[in-house]
UniProtKB/TrEMBL annotation:
Protein name, per record: ABC transporter permease
One CC-aspect GO term: plasma membrane
UniProt keyword NAD present: no
Record keywords: Cell membrane, Membrane, Transmembrane, Transmembrane helix, Transport
Source taxon at top rank: Bacteria
Keyword Cytoplasm in annotation: no
Classification of source organism: Bacteria, Pseudomonadati, Bacteroidota, Flavobacteriia, Flavobacteriales
Recorded topology in the membrane: Multi-pass membrane protein
The ABC transmembrane type-1 domain, residue ranges: 163-353
Subcellular localization, as worded in the UniProt entry: Cell membrane
Family: Belongs to the binding-protein-dependent transport system permease family.
Length: 364
């Protein structure tokens, strides 16, 4: 005889599974997470930050193909496999788009690619620079599925690598906001009195400052950079968590099981962590999903303003900033593609939040 659990966790999980858009969004977020972690494995351009520039093929349409000549470098850099997988390959070889080539008298003569019907510069290189004095394997046809940006970089690779910032800023920012929000909110709600008044004053002052303005101030104080943005966004999102936790703690701390815990002599720390917090996490989980989406939008806004992730680091917001003027220049996909990526990821987190809200609603 099989045993069917009737626990609240089991019932909430079953309700979540019945929500198609919630499950679909969760799968999409997992997919984006895998892409962001192993971006350099999937990216056609696996150089660090996907930053291989070819100005002669800038702003090309999706599906553009060109012959790419790779001239080996004498400089060799030792790099571990793990470093290549997670941080990209340090490229020392020279890549040059070409339109035609031929081998004559132990020399490779090639014509550099030039757009708009122009003829490129003819150059030559000794075959001695190639292993075994053969160009086999060093001239390949390269296809740019999403086209190239205004610097001639592979747009698909930049999108894949840029997913890492947008995805991980959600985790880091939400972690910081949960850490501070749960700590401050539980202390304020449980102890009350002057402690509650002081913490609420801090919350209200922080809340009154516009989020983007506060993030800009923190970013400028900590400096421009990758981790500074993560910390700045996290430090601005904790107040909402703290207010929710405080309200939940106030409503729960007078329950009978909390009174029983006090009668048994348990200390305040154990009562808060073991008895109160596990019973108020449902709204906190829902608000965390919404904070994921907010963190992604804030980071994109900061990168668009130029104070987020700094070049040559790939960021969806920075990609929109670099190409927004191309919307009226006949190549809107350069800004629309990263914009759609931001929109889809934010929407996925919002749909997950809605599904979690319905699943954790004990009244339904």
């Amino acid at each position: 005889m099989s045993y069917k659990s009737n626990s609240l966790k089991y019932l909430a999980l079953q309700k979540f599974k019945k929500n198609f858009w919630g499950v679909f969004s969760f799968g999409f977020v997992v997919f984006v997470g895998i892409i962001s972690v192993f971006a350099y494995v999937f990216a056609p351009d696996n150089s660090q930050y996907a930053n291989q520039m070819h100005l002669s093929i800038h702003s090309k349409q999706p599906g553009f193909k060109v012959l790419m000549l790779i001239i080996p470098s004498q400089l060799k850099i030792e790099q571990s496999l793990v470093d290549k997988i997670f941080f990209g390959t340090k490229i020392t070889d020279t890549e040059t788009p070409i339109s035609e080539y031929n081998v004559v008298e132990r020399k490779l003569t090639y014509t550099e690619y030039a757009s708009d019907g122009l003829k490129g510069v003819e150059k030559s290189v000794d075959l001695e620079v190639f292993p075994n004095q053969s160009v086999d394997g060093f001239i390949k046809e390269r296809t740019f599925l999403f086209g190239t940006d205004k610097y001639g970089r592979d747009l698909l690779s930049r999108i894949l690598v840029g997913a890492r910032i947008s995805f991980f800023i959600g985790f880091v920012a939400v972690f910081i906001s949960l850490l501070l929000g749960i700590l401050m909110g539980s202390i304020a709600g449980y102890f009350g009195g002057k402690i509650d008044a002081m913490i609420m004053w801090i919350i209200n002052v922080t809340w009154s400052i516009p989020t983007l303005l506060l993030v800009i101030a923190i970013t400028l104080a900590l400096g421009k950079g990758f981790w500074q943005v993560f910390i700045a966004v996290g430090l601005t999102m904790w107040v909402e968590v703290a207010r929710v936790v405080r309200g939940q703690v106030i409503s729960v701390k007078e329950q009978q099981y909390v009174t029983a815990a006090r009668a048994l002599g348990f200390n305040d720390f154990r009562i808060i962590t073991k008895h109160i917090l596990p019973n108020i996490m449902a709204p906190v989980i829902v608000i965390s999903a919404a904070n994921f989406a907010s963190a992604i939008l804030i980071e994109s806004g900061l990168s668009f303003l130029g104070i987020g992730a700094q070049p040559p680091m790939a960021s969806w917001g920075a990609m929109i900033k670099d190409h927004y003027n191309y919307i009226i220049l006949g190549k809107p996909y350069l800004a629309i593609i990263p914009g759609l990526c931001i929109m889809s990821l934010v929407m996925a987190f919002m749909l997950i939040g809605n599904a979690l809200r319905d699943a954790l609603d004990v009244k339904s």
